[in-house]
Specification:
Blueprint lengths: L7 H20 L1 H9 L13 H20 L9 H10 L4 H28 L8 H23 L4 H15 L5 H9 L6 H33 L30 H6 L2
Helix pairs in contact: 3-5, 4-5, 5-6, 6-7, 6-9, 7-8
The structure holds protoporphyrin IX containing FE (HEM).
Length: 262
Protein backbone atom coordinates (compact mmCIF):
# COMPACT_ATOMS: atom_id res chain seq x y z
CA UNK A 1 0.00 0.00 0.00
CA UNK A 2 1.41 3.35 -1.01
CA UNK A 3 1.98 5.72 1.89
CA UNK A 4 1.04 9.38 1.47
CA UNK A 5 3.87 11.91 1.80
CA UNK A 6 3.37 14.14 4.84
CA UNK A 7 2.64 17.78 4.15
CA UNK A 8 5.00 20.41 5.58
CA UNK A 9 2.41 21.29 8.26
CA UNK A 10 2.08 17.65 9.33
CA UNK A 11 5.86 17.30 9.47
CA UNK A 12 6.05 20.38 11.73
CA UNK A 13 3.27 19.01 13.96
CA UNK A 14 5.07 15.69 14.29
CA UNK A 15 8.34 17.41 15.12
CA UNK A 16 6.62 19.23 17.99
CA UNK A 17 4.43 16.36 19.18
CA UNK A 18 7.10 13.66 19.15
CA UNK A 19 9.17 15.04 22.06
CA UNK A 20 5.97 15.93 23.97
CA UNK A 21 4.63 12.37 23.54
CA UNK A 22 8.06 10.95 24.40
CA UNK A 23 8.09 12.88 27.67
CA UNK A 24 4.44 12.07 28.49
CA UNK A 25 4.92 8.33 27.93
CA UNK A 26 7.93 8.22 30.22
CA UNK A 27 6.89 10.65 32.97
CA UNK A 28 3.21 11.62 32.77
CA UNK A 29 4.45 15.20 33.23
CA UNK A 30 2.52 16.64 30.28
CA UNK A 31 -0.76 15.28 31.67
CA UNK A 32 0.10 16.75 35.09
CA UNK A 33 0.75 20.21 33.60
CA UNK A 34 -2.50 20.01 31.57
CA UNK A 35 -4.39 19.00 34.71
CA UNK A 36 -2.87 21.96 36.58
CA UNK A 37 -3.64 24.50 33.84
CA UNK A 38 -7.13 23.33 32.91
CA UNK A 39 -8.59 22.42 36.32
CA UNK A 40 -11.95 23.92 37.21
CA UNK A 41 -12.23 26.89 39.56
CA UNK A 42 -15.40 28.57 40.87
CA UNK A 43 -17.02 30.81 38.25
CA UNK A 44 -16.92 33.81 40.58
CA UNK A 45 -13.20 33.56 41.33
CA UNK A 46 -11.94 37.16 41.37
CA UNK A 47 -8.84 39.37 41.33
CA UNK A 48 -8.19 38.97 45.06
CA UNK A 49 -7.42 35.34 44.29
CA UNK A 50 -4.45 36.36 42.17
CA UNK A 51 -2.56 37.55 45.26
CA UNK A 52 -1.13 34.07 45.88
CA UNK A 53 0.31 33.94 42.35
CA UNK A 54 1.60 37.51 42.76
CA UNK A 55 3.41 36.38 45.94
CA UNK A 56 4.84 33.43 44.03
CA UNK A 57 6.07 35.78 41.28
CA UNK A 58 7.72 38.02 43.90
CA UNK A 59 9.49 34.97 45.35
CA UNK A 60 10.75 33.91 41.92
CA UNK A 61 12.09 37.45 41.29
CA UNK A 62 13.88 37.31 44.67
CA UNK A 63 15.39 33.91 43.83
CA UNK A 64 16.63 35.08 40.41
CA UNK A 65 18.03 38.45 41.51
CA UNK A 66 19.52 36.83 44.65
CA UNK A 67 21.33 34.25 42.50
CA UNK A 68 22.88 37.02 40.40
CA UNK A 69 23.92 38.97 43.51
CA UNK A 70 25.47 35.81 45.02
CA UNK A 71 27.83 35.64 42.04
CA UNK A 72 29.49 38.90 43.15
CA UNK A 73 28.82 39.16 46.90
CA UNK A 74 31.62 38.18 49.31
CA UNK A 75 30.42 37.02 52.77
CA UNK A 76 33.52 38.16 54.60
CA UNK A 77 33.67 41.14 57.02
CA UNK A 78 36.68 42.63 55.19
CA UNK A 79 35.11 42.55 51.73
CA UNK A 80 31.31 42.34 52.15
CA UNK A 81 30.70 46.10 52.12
CA UNK A 82 33.12 46.68 49.22
CA UNK A 83 31.58 43.86 47.19
CA UNK A 84 28.15 45.49 47.57
CA UNK A 85 29.60 48.85 46.46
CA UNK A 86 31.18 47.05 43.50
CA UNK A 87 27.82 45.49 42.55
CA UNK A 88 26.06 48.87 42.81
CA UNK A 89 28.62 51.05 41.04
CA UNK A 90 30.71 48.90 38.68
CA UNK A 91 28.79 45.83 37.53
CA UNK A 92 26.56 46.35 34.49
CA UNK A 93 22.93 46.78 35.74
CA UNK A 94 24.16 45.79 39.21
CA UNK A 95 22.30 48.74 40.78
CA UNK A 96 19.10 47.50 39.13
CA UNK A 97 19.46 43.88 40.25
CA UNK A 98 20.37 44.96 43.79
CA UNK A 99 17.49 47.46 43.87
CA UNK A 100 15.05 44.83 42.63
CA UNK A 101 16.22 42.43 45.34
CA UNK A 102 16.10 45.03 48.12
CA UNK A 103 12.72 46.53 47.23
CA UNK A 104 11.41 43.18 46.06
CA UNK A 105 11.93 41.85 49.59
CA UNK A 106 9.37 44.36 50.89
CA UNK A 107 7.03 43.62 47.98
CA UNK A 108 7.22 39.89 48.80
CA UNK A 109 6.37 40.43 52.48
CA UNK A 110 3.56 42.94 51.72
CA UNK A 111 2.03 40.59 49.12
CA UNK A 112 2.24 37.69 51.55
CA UNK A 113 0.28 39.70 54.15
CA UNK A 114 -2.28 40.79 51.53
CA UNK A 115 -2.71 37.19 50.35
CA UNK A 116 -3.09 36.05 53.97
CA UNK A 117 -5.70 38.77 54.52
CA UNK A 118 -7.64 37.60 51.47
CA UNK A 119 -7.56 34.00 52.70
CA UNK A 120 -8.75 35.14 56.14
CA UNK A 121 -11.57 37.39 54.86
CA UNK A 122 -12.81 34.73 52.44
CA UNK A 123 -12.83 32.16 55.27
CA UNK A 124 -10.53 30.03 53.09
CA UNK A 125 -8.57 28.84 56.15
CA UNK A 126 -11.50 26.70 57.34
CA UNK A 127 -11.97 22.96 56.89
CA UNK A 128 -10.51 21.31 54.85
CA UNK A 129 -7.80 23.95 54.28
CA UNK A 130 -6.41 24.33 57.82
CA UNK A 131 -3.21 22.51 56.88
CA UNK A 132 -2.62 24.93 54.02
CA UNK A 133 -3.08 27.84 56.44
CA UNK A 134 -0.47 26.26 58.75
CA UNK A 135 1.92 25.87 55.81
CA UNK A 136 1.18 29.53 55.00
CA UNK A 137 2.15 30.56 58.54
CA UNK A 138 5.46 28.70 58.13
CA UNK A 139 5.94 30.51 54.80
CA UNK A 140 5.29 33.84 56.48
CA UNK A 141 7.79 33.10 59.26
CA UNK A 142 10.37 31.96 56.68
CA UNK A 143 9.79 35.12 54.61
CA UNK A 144 10.37 37.29 57.66
CA UNK A 145 13.50 35.23 58.42
CA UNK A 146 14.76 35.99 54.91
CA UNK A 147 14.27 39.71 55.54
CA UNK A 148 16.10 39.53 58.87
CA UNK A 149 19.11 37.54 57.62
CA UNK A 150 19.40 39.54 54.38
CA UNK A 151 19.52 42.85 56.24
CA UNK A 152 22.94 42.09 57.75
CA UNK A 153 24.64 41.25 54.46
CA UNK A 154 25.58 44.83 53.32
CA UNK A 155 27.66 44.89 56.53
CA UNK A 156 27.25 48.64 57.15
CA UNK A 157 26.31 50.41 60.38
CA UNK A 158 22.55 50.13 59.77
CA UNK A 159 22.87 46.42 59.03
CA UNK A 160 25.06 45.77 62.06
CA UNK A 161 22.93 47.59 64.63
CA UNK A 162 19.62 46.36 63.23
CA UNK A 163 20.95 42.82 63.62
CA UNK A 164 22.16 43.53 67.17
CA UNK A 165 18.61 44.64 68.04
CA UNK A 166 17.05 41.64 66.23
CA UNK A 167 19.32 39.12 67.94
CA UNK A 168 18.72 40.73 71.34
CA UNK A 169 14.96 40.47 70.82
CA UNK A 170 15.34 36.79 69.89
CA UNK A 171 17.52 36.33 72.97
CA UNK A 172 14.69 37.43 75.27
CA UNK A 173 12.35 34.62 74.11
CA UNK A 174 11.49 32.21 76.94
CA UNK A 175 13.64 29.03 77.23
CA UNK A 176 14.94 28.95 73.63
CA UNK A 177 15.98 32.64 73.47
CA UNK A 178 19.62 32.36 74.62
CA UNK A 179 20.24 29.31 72.39
CA UNK A 180 18.68 31.08 69.43
CA UNK A 181 20.82 34.19 69.94
CA UNK A 182 23.95 32.04 70.32
CA UNK A 183 23.05 30.05 67.20
CA UNK A 184 22.41 33.18 65.10
CA UNK A 185 25.60 34.89 66.23
CA UNK A 186 27.77 31.82 65.92
CA UNK A 187 29.27 32.85 69.26
CA UNK A 188 28.59 35.17 72.19
CA UNK A 189 28.72 38.36 70.08
CA UNK A 190 28.38 39.33 66.40
CA UNK A 191 31.58 38.35 64.57
CA UNK A 192 32.87 37.15 61.22
CA UNK A 193 31.09 33.81 61.66
CA UNK A 194 27.78 35.64 62.12
CA UNK A 195 28.04 37.03 58.61
CA UNK A 196 28.75 33.70 56.89
CA UNK A 197 26.10 32.04 59.04
CA UNK A 198 23.49 34.63 58.04
CA UNK A 199 24.57 34.27 54.42
CA UNK A 200 24.15 30.48 54.47
CA UNK A 201 20.77 30.77 56.18
CA UNK A 202 19.70 33.54 53.79
CA UNK A 203 20.67 31.93 50.51
CA UNK A 204 20.43 28.20 51.17
CA UNK A 205 18.48 27.16 54.22
CA UNK A 206 15.42 29.42 54.16
CA UNK A 207 14.99 29.64 50.35
CA UNK A 208 15.16 25.83 50.19
CA UNK A 209 12.53 25.57 52.92
CA UNK A 210 10.34 28.19 51.21
CA UNK A 211 10.57 26.38 47.85
CA UNK A 212 9.58 23.08 49.47
CA UNK A 213 6.74 24.71 51.43
CA UNK A 214 5.44 26.46 48.28
CA UNK A 215 5.43 23.06 46.52
CA UNK A 216 3.31 21.59 49.34
CA UNK A 217 1.12 24.71 49.45
CA UNK A 218 0.32 24.55 45.74
CA UNK A 219 -0.22 20.79 45.86
CA UNK A 220 -2.91 21.39 48.49
CA UNK A 221 -4.42 24.31 46.52
CA UNK A 222 -4.80 21.98 43.52
CA UNK A 223 -6.03 19.03 45.56
CA UNK A 224 -8.62 20.98 47.58
CA UNK A 225 -9.63 23.49 44.92
CA UNK A 226 -10.06 27.24 45.26
CA UNK A 227 -12.60 28.74 47.68
CA UNK A 228 -15.43 30.87 46.28
CA UNK A 229 -15.78 34.43 47.59
CA UNK A 230 -18.01 34.82 50.68
CA UNK A 231 -20.70 36.64 48.65
CA UNK A 232 -20.90 33.69 46.28
CA UNK A 233 -24.07 31.55 46.05
CA UNK A 234 -21.78 28.64 46.88
CA UNK A 235 -21.05 28.76 50.65
CA UNK A 236 -17.56 30.05 51.47
CA UNK A 237 -15.17 27.24 52.18
CA UNK A 238 -16.49 24.94 49.49
CA UNK A 239 -14.60 24.69 46.27
CA UNK A 240 -14.62 22.31 43.36
CA UNK A 241 -14.53 19.50 45.94
CA UNK A 242 -18.24 20.15 46.39
CA UNK A 243 -19.40 17.22 44.34
CA UNK A 244 -17.25 18.11 41.38
CA UNK A 245 -13.51 17.94 41.74
CA UNK A 246 -11.29 19.26 38.97
CA UNK A 247 -10.69 15.72 37.79
CA UNK A 248 -14.32 14.71 38.24
CA UNK A 249 -13.74 12.41 41.24
CA UNK A 250 -15.65 12.64 44.51
CA UNK A 251 -15.57 10.78 47.79
CA UNK A 252 -12.07 11.46 49.05
CA UNK A 253 -11.45 10.95 52.76
CA UNK A 254 -13.36 13.46 54.83
CA UNK A 255 -15.39 14.80 51.94
CA UNK A 256 -18.71 13.63 53.35
CA UNK A 257 -18.03 15.45 56.63
CA UNK A 258 -17.08 18.49 54.57
CA UNK A 259 -20.43 18.35 52.75
CA UNK A 260 -22.48 17.79 55.93
CA UNK A 261 -20.74 20.76 57.58
CA UNK A 262 -22.12 23.20 55.03
C1 LIG B 1 5.52 32.40 49.74
C2 LIG B 1 4.32 32.72 50.15
C3 LIG B 1 3.04 32.20 49.53
C4 LIG B 1 2.79 31.81 48.24
C5 LIG B 1 3.76 31.80 47.05
C6 LIG B 1 1.40 31.41 48.18
C7 LIG B 1 0.76 30.98 47.03
C8 LIG B 1 -0.59 30.65 46.97
C9 LIG B 1 -1.36 30.45 45.76
C10 LIG B 1 -0.79 30.59 44.33
C11 LIG B 1 -2.61 30.14 46.12
C12 LIG B 1 -3.83 29.87 45.17
C13 LIG B 1 -4.39 31.18 44.64
C14 LIG B 1 -4.86 32.12 45.72
O1 LIG B 1 -5.71 31.72 46.52
O2 LIG B 1 -4.35 33.25 45.77
C15 LIG B 1 -2.68 30.09 47.57
C16 LIG B 1 -3.76 29.73 48.32
C17 LIG B 1 -3.79 29.68 49.72
N1 LIG B 1 -2.85 30.21 50.57
FE1 LIG B 1 -1.02 30.90 50.00
N2 LIG B 1 0.85 31.53 49.45
C18 LIG B 1 1.81 32.03 50.29
C19 LIG B 1 1.65 32.36 51.63
C20 LIG B 1 0.50 32.11 52.37
C21 LIG B 1 0.26 32.55 53.74
C22 LIG B 1 1.22 33.44 54.54
C23 LIG B 1 -0.95 32.02 54.12
C24 LIG B 1 -1.66 32.13 55.45
C25 LIG B 1 -1.08 32.13 56.62
C26 LIG B 1 -1.47 31.25 53.00
C27 LIG B 1 -2.64 30.51 53.00
C28 LIG B 1 -3.27 30.02 51.87
C29 LIG B 1 -4.52 29.27 51.86
C30 LIG B 1 -5.31 28.80 53.11
C31 LIG B 1 -4.84 29.06 50.52
C32 LIG B 1 -6.10 28.36 49.96
C33 LIG B 1 -7.06 29.46 49.60
C34 LIG B 1 -8.27 28.99 48.84
O3 LIG B 1 -8.46 27.79 48.68
O4 LIG B 1 -9.04 29.84 48.42
N3 LIG B 1 -0.60 31.36 51.94
N4 LIG B 1 -1.43 30.43 48.07
Amino acid sequence: MATRRLTRKEQMQQAILYPVDWLEERSGLVGAVKYFLFRKVPGDTNWFQTLGSATLTAFIVQALTGTILAMYYKPDPNSAYDSIQHITNDIWAGWLVRGMHRWGASVFIILMFMHMGRVFLFGAYKYPRELNWIIGVLLLASGLGEGFTGYLLPWDQTAYWATVVGININGTAPFLGPFLAQFLQGGTYINADTLSRFYAIHMLMIPGAIAALIGLHLYLVIRLGVTSPPWSKEAAGTGPLDGETPNGKVGRAGLSRFRRGR
